[in-house]
Design a protein that fits this description.
The chain is of the alpha+beta class and 436 residues long. It folds into 2 domains: 264 residues, Conserved hypothetical protein from pyrococcus furiosus pfu- 392566-001, ParB domain, CATH 3.90.1530; 140 residues, no CATH class. It is 33% helix and 25% strand. It has 15 helices and 21 strands. Helix 4 runs parallel beside helix 5, helix 5 packs across helix 8 and helix 6 runs antiparallel to helix 7.
């Protein structure tokens, strides 16, 4: 495990801004244009003005979304809208939420973690990244000199010793609390006690860290440190660390939701053609048509732990079917250098066999042909008679599990894009980590 540290984070001064719920925001990469407008309206100091400042007419090299973010950040600090912690602290963080009729509480803590290249075997990624988002986040981080949002990371701790240590310290204390529009309640406690901090650092010492969400921001932090090293500007300690929210892999509130695929801008296919193109590698089970077929396909998938099954819906004939890979050697032929655990993942089978064979789509390089969604009603909308979109195929796939993530990442492999969706997301605006 790389070194973790307490730090003096910047937090909103509620005496200035009022309710915390009005100034936090979802991570930048899930904010739509309409949601961005709503967050701007919600409060003049909403964190969206830092993490996703909107583009304006006349933007140029000297006046743009990054310079405005830097200006807001500096202004808010000067006006005590954002106030720096008086002494180094760790931040215990709970999320209370409901999904699929069940209530959960996910528990973790925020700390800054020493950066380490992936090949050092201390911090492990599990997904590929794209150059565009990294360039965007680098410009923002260099402009503001801060980690505005935490990276979500996991660590092995079967006995939950680390979190138990933190929980015992905050017992009986009233948290800072906010409930967002999605109904998720966020609770935050500040832990400044040096003995507790030292105990947590000791317990975390031998543990590896697995990035669950925030790969682009982690690689951006590495790039910023490398730029600073080349410019001989690494004297400030913060440049060597990045803000993380750390959760045990055995936390009972750790929920991984599926990420389904809607395939667009491709030739029309019918159910029978899909079966023919996939040949003898799959066996198929009909599920019905439209909304009924979609729910039947997902219920079928969700009732098995077998990752080798994919739900396929063809929009042209509104037909659903479930395909199960029956010839593992087909995956060996297309991914001979990958591990057995990687080749057994539903998303690997979908991307390497199904999408490649049907449409020659490579999800690691193609983005506009794949739309990623998480809820069945979003899939169902593609099958409405007058849906008015260019979607031709819908794919239901089970998410990779935390155990599978650990095995794949530990082997220095990366899963296909969007293999996991950890719900709920961690909002920006709870704590900011100054870097330089």
């Amino acid at each position: 495990m790389p070194e973790i540290q307490a730090f003096r984070g910047f937090r909103y001064n509620l005496g200035q801004v009022g309710e915390l719920r009005d100034v936090i925001a979802p991570p930048y990469d899930v904010i739509s244009t309409s949601q961005q407008r709503e967050l701007y309206r919600r409060h003049p100091c909403n964190i969206v003005r830092l993490i996703l400042n909107r583009e304006e007419a006349g933007d140029n090299d000297s006046e743009n979304c990054y310079t405005r973010a830097e200006r807001y950040f500096r202004q808010w600090k000067d006006e005590d809208v954002l106030v720096e912690e008086g002494e180094p602290a760790l931040y215990v963080y709970h999320q209370l939420f409901e999904t699929e009729g069940h209530h959960y509480t996910r528990k973790g803590f925020m700390a800054r973690v020493r950066l380490a290249p992936f090949d050092q075997g201390l911090i492990f990624p599990h997904e590929h990244t794209m150059p565009g988002p990294k360039a965007d986040r680098l410009r923002l981080m260099e402009a503001t000199g801060a980690n505005l949002s935490p990276i979500f990371a996991l660590y092995p701790d079967k006995q939950m010793q680390v979190q138990s240590c933190m929980e015992s310290r905050i017992a009986g204390e009233i948290p800072l609390q906010a409930t967002d529009p999605d109904g998720v309640t966020h609770q935050l406690w500040t832990v400044r006690d040096s003995e507790t901090i030292s105990e947590v650092m000791g317990l975390m010492g031998p543990k590896p860290v697995f990035i669950a969400d925030g790969h682009h921001r982690y690689e951006t932090a590495l790039a910023m440190r490398e730029n600073a090293q080349r410019a001989d500007k690494t004297s400030r300690e913060g440049i060597h660390y990045v803000l993380m929210m750390l959760v045990s892999m055995t936390d009972p509130g750790l929920v991984v939701l599926p990420t389904h695929r809607l395939i667009r801008k491709v030739p029309v296919l019918k159910a029978e053609q899909v079966r023919e193109l996939m040949g003898e590698d799959f066996e198929w089970e009909p599920m019905g048509k439209g909304k009924v077929g979609c729910h039947a396909a997902w219920d079928w998938l969700d009732s098995f732990e077998d990752q080798k099954m994919i739900g396929i819906g063809t929009v042209s004939d509104r037909t659903w079917q479930v395909g199960r890979l029956k010839r593992p050697e087909a995956m060996q032929a297309v991914a001979p250098k990958k591990s057995e655990i990687w080749k057994s993942l539903g998303v690997s089978i979908l991307h390497q066999l199904v999408l490649q064979r049907l449409y020659q789509i490579d999800p690691t390089t193609t983005s506009d042909q794949i739309q990623y969604v998480h809820e069945l009603h979003q899939v169902e909308s593609a099958f409405e008679i007058d849906h008015g979109s260019d979607i031709q195929l819908a794919c239901l796939v089970q998410p990779a599990t935390v155990t599978e993530l650990e095995k794949v990442a530990s082997g220095m492999e990366k899963m296909p894009p969007k293999s996991t969706y950890f719900y709920p997301k961690i909002p920006s605006g709870l704590v900011i980590n100054p870097v330089c």
